[in-house]
Design brief:
This protein has 304 residues and is α/β, with parallel strands linked by helices. The chain has one domain (10-302): NADP-dependent oxidoreductase domain (TIM Barrel), CATH 3.20.20. It is 41% helix and 18% strand. It is built from eleven helices and twelve strands. Strands 3-4-5-8-9-10-11-12 form an eight-stranded parallel beta sheet. β4 (57-59), α2 (68-77) and β5 (84-89) form a beta-alpha-beta unit. The longest helix is centred in the middle third of the chain and has 15 residues, at 105-119. The chain is globular. The N and C termini lie far apart (43 Å).
Length: 304
């Protein structure tokens, strides 16, 4: 049996160091990523428990709700001492499961200032372009974020849902510190972006690292889990963490018990044999229900 594959415990967003398992907040909204969560108190408990577990990176967006996740985060965790808050702008909402892009500089500027108010902060640690607008050159969108950084209302800039060519264009405009793309056992299409991040010293923030809880777990994943006394979700996250020291998964959940389960992934040390087994296994990603439809719509939008 090959030895365990060791991984660093933190990543660096510029001068900010955070642990390598964050929390995404898209699940802390209503069905279709629209409106208030079904149980607001439980949503607040998820955020509070995350801090207790040592999570210090929280990712949100003005389009989650819209505005709901940011407001919940600001209300629950303010003051934000000891944590890094990342948010995004560039997607607009017209209803449950409906997303559209808006990368115009004036929109990004106004979105930033509105996010500051909802998050109850004076500076956003990481402000990200949520998606590239096909009608606005990425250089113009990133230029607006660079201006906000120079003005001091944004500390660092990141991009989301980009390919390698778009990332290189972004880096030519601004000192981007992170990329946030979809990545999981079921979807490894951003491998090239992950590798580029590692080579350039950027953090790769992996959204939907558990394929939104719909990953079809096969015999290989269950067998690896049995060897480690770990759940399928924990093995999936441990696999992702082992892909690169640049990787920072942000699993989201509306359940404290699932949050605690996810945190247990940090205690799983996969061997090189485990990784080889998982790497050669194909996983599928079925999605059902209204929440699944909303996420499919988002995936289609950002994949264009």
């Amino acid at each position: 049996m090959s030895g365990d594959v060791g991984q660093p415990l933190t990543v660096a967003l510029g001068e900010l160091h955070v642990h390598r398992l964050g929390v995404g907040t898209m699940s802390l909204t209503g069905p279709g990523v629209w409106g208030e969560p079904r149980d607001r108190r439980e949503a607040q408990r998820v955020l509070q428990r995350a801090v207790e577990l040592g999570v210090d990176f929280f990712d949100t967006a003005d389009s989650y709700g819209p505005q709901v996740a940011e407001s919940l985060l600001g209300e629950t965790l303010h003051p934000n001492d000891g944590i890094v808050v990342a948010t995004k702008a560039g997607l607009m909402r017209s209803g449950p499961g409906r997303w559209s892009r808006n990368g115009r500089p004036e929109h990004l500027r106004s979105s930033c200032h509105a996010s500051l108010a909802r998050l109850r902060i004076e500076q956003i640690d990481l402000f990200q372009l949520h998606a590239v607008d096909p009608h606005v050159p990425i250089e113009e969108s990133l230029g607006a974020l660079a201006d906000l950084r120079r003005e001091g209302v944004v500390r660092h800039v990141g991009v989301c849902n980009v390919d390698v060519e778009q990332l290189l264009r972004a880096l030519a405009v601004e000192s981007v510190v992170s990329v946030q793309n979809r990545f999981s056992l079921a979807d490894r299409s951003s491998r090239g972006v992950l590798d580029l991040c590692a080579a350039r010293g950027l953090v790769f923030v992996a959204w939907a690292p558990l394929a939104k809880g719909t990953l079809t777990f096969g015999d290989a994943l269950n067998a690896v889990g049995a060897r480690h006394g770990a759940t399928a979700a924990q093995i999936s996250l441990a696999w992702l963490l082992a892909q690169s020291p640049a990787a920072l998964p942000i699993p989201g959940t509306s359940s404290v018990s699932h949050l605690e389960e996810n945190a247990g992934a940090l205690n799983v040390s996969l061997t090189s044999d485990d990784l080889a087994t998982l790497d050669r296994t194909a996983f599928s990603m079925p999605t059902r229900g209204k929440a699944g439809a909303a996420r499919r719509a988002l995936r289609r939008l950002v994949s264009r």
